[in-house]
Structures are given as C-alpha cells and as structure tokens.
Give the backbone structure.
Amino acid sequence: MLRNARGRYVSGSRLAAGLCLTRAAIHKQVVRLREWGYDITGTNRKGYRLENSPQALDTDRFRAASLGRPICHFPSLGSTQDELKERALAGAPQGTLVLADEQTSGRGRMGRRWLSPRGGLWFSLLLRPAIPPAQVPALALVAALDWAMVLRRATGLPACVKWPNDVWIDNRKVAGILTEMSSEMDRVHWVVLGVGVNINNPSPRGMTPPAASLREMTGKPFYRQALLEDWLKRFAGSLRRYQRDGFSAFRRDCEECLSMKGRTVVCETAQGTVAGRVEGIDGEGRLLLRTAAGLRRFGEGAIRLKKGDERA
Ligand code: BTN
C-alpha cells in the first residue's frame, strides 16, 4: 500500500482497514520493515510514507549487468546452493543466478552454518569456466576481491580480502564465499559460487570470526540491488580476464587488499596446522607463509591471527 501511494502519506487507519490489522499491529510491521532496511517516515498526523526500499530488487534490470541470464529470485529457500546445483545438473547455462531474501539452511565453508535472515544478500551464481579445476579456488578469491572493491566504494570503509575468500572490514567478516564444483581431472563441468553479504540484516552474533552487517557498521541501510549490480558487472569482466590471463593478472590488487599481511597467523589445512607470517599471495592465488621451515605456499585452508598477534 505504501509503494502504491507513490511517495504520498497513507494514514495508519487506512493501512489498518486495508490490511485488517489494528493500528498497533501496523506500527509493529512498520518497525519490522525499517529493520529490514525500508526507509519509512511516520508522523502522528499524516501516517506513513515510503521513502526508499533497499529490499526491493528489480530482477529485470539485472540482466544487462549480469552475465546475460535472468535472475531466479525467491522470497525464501533452504539454500541457494542446493537450488542452483539442481539447475546446474539439469544443464542451466553459465550466468544463472539464484537469489533468496532469506535462507533457512544457509551453508558456509567447512560444513558451518550460515545465518541468512532478510536484509542480507544471499545468492549463488552458476559458472562453466574454461579453466582447469585447480584454478577454481583462486577464481573465488577474485570474486572476493571484487566484493571488497564494491564495498569500499559503497561504504568508504577499508574493506579487504581475508584469504582464501572472505571480505572483512575492521576485523569483522562482512561477506563469505562458498564454492562447490563438479569436474573431471582436467575439465570443469560447473562451479556454483555462493555469496553471502551481511548488508541490512542484524549482525550475526557469537560468530568466530566476528561478523558484522554494513548497516550496523555504518548506521545506514544500503541498496542490495545496487551492490549486486555493481559486483556482477565487475565480476563478468574479471571472469573474462581470469580465463585469459589467470590469477597473475589480479595478484597485485589482491595483495594490496589483503588483510593480515605481515602478521603472524595460524593456517589450518587438511594436512594440519602451521604458524607463520603472511608474506602475500603467489601468482596462482596461494597464500605465502614464512614459517620456521621457510617459505610455504597454501592452496587451501583457513587462517586466524596467532595468539599474541591479535592487535587490530
Ligand atoms: C563462508 O563460510 O564464509 C561462506 C558463506 C557462503 C554463504 C552463501 S549465502 C548464499 C549461498 N547459499 C548458501 O547456503 N551458502 C552460500
């Protein structure tokens, strides 16, 4: 009703009558809408007016910015990864994107849960890249780098990439990427790149590492649509470049944007745990760690600051 009023006030009693609710219930819903990022002005005399809807996604507009495919937009899903994987198996083309306003069983890396209430950006993008399977992990690093750039521009804050593919601002995780793929030894069938960005949702509590939403960090809501469009545009270009030139074309930007550079970290891998100082990233997207046994390269794993090197 507020959107239909096109910028005019709608009184509380008209909303109440139109929706068969009490005025107190209308007020409660307006409070919830504001929490989700809607900008609604309310005055006792005139009622409510919708100023801005950061939640609104105009999925037709994405087509131009995305990899040329329509967006499949759901109000709620278990996980966009599962929905898109089914479509990938059924032959969906590169660029198919599944987005959900909320996920009830969002998944993170290493089997962790990913909280995905309304207000955040939760989506999965289907890629069928012409690269060997070993180059897929660094492509996710490029996706994270593009997100760091988009968030820097949107917030003015120093967003950085936390290897292997998180985006952090001020020591808090704002975005994470989960990559799943199907391949032969030397050929990729599909990659499902799952992206979660905490935007207008409340910051997830009690997470390790600590997480934060853009809204809580800056005190203002953001347009999910604009952020997604911006990223899709960048990433479409990055994907072409990556397929042509490999990770070395992104190495310098990635090192400049890398969090924990020069710090002593613990790297947990499937092979065990190693401590060392972060030296940078190599031309294939692997982490360079100066350890007691010399310089080592890690293609997978998770890092955290070593105790005693936790200063910001
Ligand atoms: C991480 O652990 O940092 C990766 C988080 C990835 C979350 C996204 S949200 C959209 C997509 N669907 C999921 O279930 N997970 C990914």
In short: Residues 224-245 form the longest helix (22 residues). The chain has a mean pLDDT of 91. The chain has three domains: 12-52, 59-256, 264-305.
